[in-house]
Amino acid sequence: MPDASVPNLQPRDSVIKLAHVMYGLHVFSAVTGLVSAAFIVTAFLSGWPSIIAVVLNYMNQGEVRGSWLESHFRWQLRTFWFALLWVIVALMLALTLIGIPVAIALMLGVGVWVLYRLARGWSALSAERPLMF
Fold first, then answer.
1. 17 CB burial (10 A radius; 0-12, 13-18, 19+)
2. Is the sign of the CA dihedral 129, 24, 110, 116 positive or negative?
3. What is the greatest pairwise CA distance in the chain?
4. 36 or 116: which carries more pLDDT confidence?
5. How far apart are CA 28 and CA 9, in angstroms?
6. C-beta separation of 114 from 30 below 8 A
7. Which residues on neighbouring strands pair with residue 67, listed in sequence order?
8. What is the pTM (predicted TM-score) of this model?
9. What angle do CA 84, 89, 90 make, to 5 degrees?
10. Is 19 exposed, middle or buried (0-12, 13-18, 19+ CB in 10 A)?
11. CA geometry: angle 58, 130, 109, nearest 5 deg
């Protein structure tokens, strides 16, 4: 008996290529934070490539519904929105003098988390397998 939790529809090749492009856009934004004065996470959230990837993700969600690729679209969006949430928390902490070191540590930690999620997601996409949450 097939496992009902594993999506069984095969996505089109063009949508798989689009998912690769979206990971590439996110990685480009994040790496910009490594080579500049910006934090990884702020470059990831505010860079045009990541914003374009999020827009493409929302525009094409219907194409992947019910396929293994749906997990990648969800993974990318969750990475973006949770990173934004943690940056807002860090900014709130930075409003107090005592919270500044915690905010900096949080920003660095979220940056590493973003890089991990992008690497894990793109690796799973390259192997054409869904991400398990």
1. exposed
2. positive
3. 59
4. 116
5. 30
6. yes
7. 9
8. 0.87
9. 95
10. buried
11. 75
Confidence of residue 4 (pLDDT cuts 50, 70, 90): very low
Q: What is the DSSP string of the chain?
A: ---TTS--BPPPHHHHHHHHHHHHHHHHHHHHHHSSSS-HHHHHHHSHHHHHHHHHHHHTHHHHTTBTTHHHHHHHHHHHHHHHHHHHHHHHHHTSTTHHHHHHHHHHHHHHHHHHHHHHHHHHHHTT-PPP-
Angle value at C-alpha 13, between 124 and 5, nearest 5 degrees: 50
Tokens at 119, concatenated: 């690497």
Residues with Cβ within 8 Å of residue 76, at least 6 apart in sequence: 22, 23, 26, 53, 54, 57, 121
Band of the pLDDT at 33, cuts 50, 70, 90?
confident
For residue 55, the model assigns a pLDDT of 97
Tokens at 44, concatenated: 């990831």
Q: How many CA atoms lie within 13 A of 55 on its CB side?
A: 6
